[in-house]
Amino acid sequence: MAAGTFTAQMAVSRWTGRWRLYVVLLGKRSSQWPEYEFDGAVVPTVAARSRALNKLGFVFTDGAAWTWVEDSVVADDAASPVLLIASASVREAGP
User: How far apart (Å, rounded) are the C-alpha atoms in residues 91 and 95?
Assistant: First the structure.
């Protein structure tokens, strides 16, 4: 990852059931990461994600390309519910 770039991630919150977007800041506790929670359980559009990132002070570095991966609630359990996690490369917005 280039200097000055960060990873934005988006997943459904286990507590609220809503999509949550956050920017990973290495060296900081996750409670200190900028985050935005969307209304509703529908996957936010790319435009909505871009607006949320702007509100957090970030912009995409390589367009609005998101990569999706699967994880599971219970590791190594094929019957565990699947968690979808999206990620994109971002940078701080300029002045």
Answer: 12
The answer for residues whose C-beta is within 8 angstroms of residue 43's C-beta and 6 or more apart is: 19
Question: Tell me: the pLDDT tens digits for 14-49?
Answer: 889 999 999 999 999 999 999 999 998 899 999 999
Cα–Cα dist 13/83, whole Å? 10
What burial class does residue 55 get, using C-beta atoms within 10 Å of its C-beta: 0-12 exposed, 13-18 middle, 19+ buried?
exposed
Q: Which residues make beta-bridge pairs with 6?
A: 90
Please state the pTM of the whole predicted model: 0.86
Length of the chain, please? 95
**How distant, in Å, are the alpha carbons of 5, 42, 57, 59 from that of 95?**
16, 32, 10, 12
94 alpha carbon, distance to own chain's centre: 20
